Every structure is written in structure tokens, then in C-alpha cells.
């Protein structure tokens, strides 16, 4: 059985190369298709193809879940599987912005055991295992120490912000929304944001790596009932989620409920 550190080394290397592949298309008007209202580009498919080949060659018994390709079940008796978003923040990528990332996690027994978020346009790599610290470019990171009394710096979808901006302006500093949910979770993990509210319909590949990185940085990503998410081989769409430090969680859950009203 591979250790979390061995899995992290594998996915970190694979994500770095996927990032280099994606950068080859960035700001070069890649071909784009549409899945309903969501764009997907040839860069997404190229990064996904690399990740699938490299990761499943190295771990042929693991399962596979990706935003862009068909799921593959793990071999009998194997609990672990990859959860991949080859480019989280495709809209930002296509606009030539920098806040997009490659998101790769390994799930074991329902929770992430290794995760990496590689943001190549920013030169930032966030990583964690279930047993070690969360890091940014190899240096430990931690959530902010915001507590009950001061304003919280939060980022959230515009629809949620509109419901909170007037009644909560004395309690919340509103940061611009970041289209990449994975990168937004990394911003919370590194203390750049005190928290974030996540609108309904996020997918497992949006959150798996960020979930672990945030947890190991001292924070939590939870559902509206305050419970963490358990991952399974059938990817799931979520209701409202909130992310932040324990000391802010009661406030964040309240804001999440209010934004739903």
C-alpha cells in the first residue's frame, strides 16, 4: 500500500506537468466547447489526458473521477481513487486571468489523504497529506485567527453577496468572488480570506483537494448542517458549503443560511 506522502509526490509531479500543458494554451485562444452553461477548452482536455495517463499508470488499482472524462471504478478491495479537476476556474483561464489551478486529490476511506492545487500562472503550489501540514510552495500555512468580534473578509458568489451586503456590512468585508472554488479554498487555508460561502451545485472535483488543504491548515469545509463531506466513488453535487476557521464557523454557517433565504 502506498503512503499518503508517496501519493502526494505522485500527484504533485503530475499536476505540475498538467500545469505546464495548460500554460501552453493560456492566452492563446484555445478551442472551446460548452457543457450547458459551462465552458470546457482543449486545454482542459489536454491536462486531463496527461493526468489520467500518468496517475493510472502509476496506480492502476485506484479509481478515477474527473470533471472531463468518464469515471473508472477502483479494483476490487481497493478503497482509494483520484478526484481530478484538470483546470478549476476555466472561465478565468479563458479570460487570461491567473486564478485557476490544477486540482488533484487521492481519496481513501471517504476522506482525502493527499491533495495538491497547482496554480501555474501564479507560481503557487498548495499541498497536504492527512498526516502533515498544509503548505504553499513548501512552507506551512494556516487559516486566519479571525474570531467572533471583528469583521470577516469573505468571498462568495455574487448572488449570495447581494443578500448579505446590506444587512451584514458592519460584520463582513466583501472580497471579490474568485471563479475557481479550489483556489478560493486555498486562499482561506493560507489566511488570505477568513472564509468563503459556496453556492449550491459544486462538485466533488471542485473541493476534494482544497478540503484537505484547508483541514490541515486548521480550518474546515462543511455542509450547511456543519458536518464534513464524505467522498464516495459516485461524484456528488453539493448544497451550500461554508469554509473557514473553527472560531468563525458559527458566523459562517449563519451567513450561509441567511444567503439561502
Structural class: alpha+beta
Question: What level of helicity do the residues show?
Answer: 25-40%
* Gap between N and C termini: 47 Å
| Widest β-sheet, arrangement of strands | 3-4-5-6-7-8-9
Mean pLDDT: 94
Number of strands: 14
- As residue ranges, the low-confidence spans are none
State Rg.
17 Å
Overall, the morphology is globular
SSE string: HEEHEEHEEEEEEHEHEHEEH
Number of helices: 7
- Tell me the fraction of residues in β-strands, as a range: 25-35%
Could you give a short account of the major beta sheet? Answer: 7 strands, mixed
3D structure, described in words:
Helix 1 runs antiparallel to helix 2 (42-58), helix 4 crosses helix 7 (249-260) and helix 5 (181-189) runs parallel beside helix 6 (204-216). The strands form 3 sheets. A 7-stranded mixed β-sheet has the order 3-4-5-6-7-8-9, with helices on both faces. The protein is built from 7 helices and 14 strands. It has helices at 4-23, 42-58, 90-94, 158-164, 181-189, 204-216, 249-260; strands at 32-35, 38-41, 63-66, 81-88, 101-108, 111-119, 124-129, 135-136, 139-140, 152-155, 172-174, 195-198, 219-223, 241-245. It starts with a helix and ends with a helix. Strand 8 (135-136) and strand 9 form a beta hairpin. The protein has 261 residues and is α+β, with helices and mostly antiparallel strands. It is globular and about 50 Å long. 32% of the residues lie in helices and 26% in strands.
